[in-house]
Amino acid sequence: MTESESIEYDVVVVGAGPVGENVADRARAAGLSTAVVESELVGGECSYWACMPSKSLLRPVLVRADARRVPGLRQSVQGPLDAAAVLANRDYITGNWKDDGQVDWLRSTGADFYRGQGRLAGTRRVTVHGPEGERHVLTARHAVAVCTGSRAVLPDLPGLADVKPWTSREATSAQAVPGRLVVVGGGVVAVEMATAWQALGSRVTVLVRGGGLLPRMEPFAGEMVAEALEEAGAEVRTGTSVEAVTRDGTTVVVTTSAGDRIEADEILFATGRAPRTDDLGLETVGLRPGSWLSVDDSLRVTGSEWLYAVGDVNHRALLTHQGKYQARIAGAAIAARAAGVPLLETDPWGAHAATADTAAVTQVVFTDPEAASVGLSLAEAERAGHRVRAVDVEFSSVAGAGLYGDGYRGRARMIVDLDTDTLRGVTLVGPGVGELIHSAAVAVAGEVPVNRLWHAVPSYPTLSEVWLRLLEANRDA
């Protein structure tokens, strides 16, 4: 094993997914010397096993569904999807799981890149074990940022490893369409992958331990997605858990809590995430390996003056766009502290506070129909002690929905704070609503008074006119 001299940087970033890339970019933009360490592919989970491949699988599904709603077009799109072409495009979108382009971009920012397993080795110190046995020692003058993300969690079922189950990684990178697929879980990964593989030709069975899909959203979101999955040919079983899984040759055999026996070609467990902190050297700085890392609003680890945890590892909001937002906040805070400048913007919405990760988290679920939300659901707002009112409208009252396609089904809800006359949250369900959610995010994050929203006039005839219908319903409540 070869070892380099200790190399000093202003900032050392461990993890080169979108979060780590953005921390490094912000640090370099502030004039700080920066090193980035990555043990797998630069671009991280999002680029190769999550956001990009999953959405490339879902895009043709949603476009075909939209086309089938349009008179004069639906007759042209009645056949099956070309699964081979969809998978080939997915491979192209992921760069065939090669990161040359992203490495080039990272280096173009001026950051130094080290490929290997990065581990903390005491205060402001990171060791990197490279793929050829080399060992680098990096020290940080100002900050180490842990941006290592999260991984899928598998349940503790006897013999599960022998079954070779899918996690989100296998579900987004599979090279063939399974004839029968069991999906265990009811969250975002479960419903998106059920949607994609059902449309590509699998016979999908979804097993949900709880009472419905998308439990972190308004109940109607999960209900509408479940209804659509079943109309597409999938089977959704709620209140059902997996008791045992075995593989008999090429067949997976699943035994459920109801005593049913289900046969499949593959089984996907989409049952939660855990932080990638188990082999990070946390014990050398007094933290527990494998734990989520608690942070303040500047993303600095609780009790530390130099260690930051950005993205999934802090468990604030396990979403790529929220992690990139955190990275911008962390980069600004690191740069300010390195320059000896007090964090002057200390108000909740200042440049050094990740307030949106508690007050205005946005999410889009790319199913048919899409489900999108920002801020709090009704139940969350009530649990938090806010005095609120839920205002609901159907998209059938919106002219743009009828133009979007025949039989458009959708629903919108806004949560109005009765004390401040602002919005605590918005949920939209329906085809194409993912492109509407940012307007809701502006209203929630900006704490725009409802009476002022009256003057933000939506264009006619678009789906955005749902805002007028919601405001009218609130006025008449």
TrEMBL record:
Stretches assigned to the FAD/NAD(P)-binding domain: 9-321
Disulfide bonding pattern of the chain: 46-51
Classification lineage: Bacteria, Bacillati, Actinomycetota, Actinomycetes, Kitasatosporales
Protein name: Oxidoreductase
Transmembrane segments: none
InterPro entries in UniProt: Class-I_Pyr_Nuc-Dis_Oxidored, FAD/NAD-bd_sf, FAD/NAD-binding_dom, FAD/NAD-linked_Rdtase_dimer_sf, Pyr_nuc-diS_OxRdtase, Pyr_nucl-diS_OxRdtase_dimer
Gene3D superfamilies in the cross-refs: 3.30.390.30, FAD/NAD(P)-binding domain
Domain of life: Bacteria
Domain Pyridine nucleotide-disulphide oxidoreductase dimerisation: 362-467
Amino-acid positions noted as binding NAD(+) in the UniProt annotation, renumbered to this chain: 185-192, 272
GO molecular function: dihydrolipoyl dehydrogenase (NADH) activity; flavin adenine dinucleotide binding
SUPFAM superfamilies in UniProt: FAD/NAD(P)-binding domain, FAD/NAD-linked reductases, dimerisation (C-terminal) domain
Keywords: FAD, Flavoprotein, NAD, Nucleotide-binding
Cofactor: how bound: Binds 1 FAD per subunit.
Amino-acid positions noted as binding FAD in the UniProt annotation, renumbered to this chain: 55, 118, 148-150, 312
Family of this protein: Belongs to the class-I pyridine nucleotide-disulfide oxidoreductase family.
The protein's required cofactors: FAD
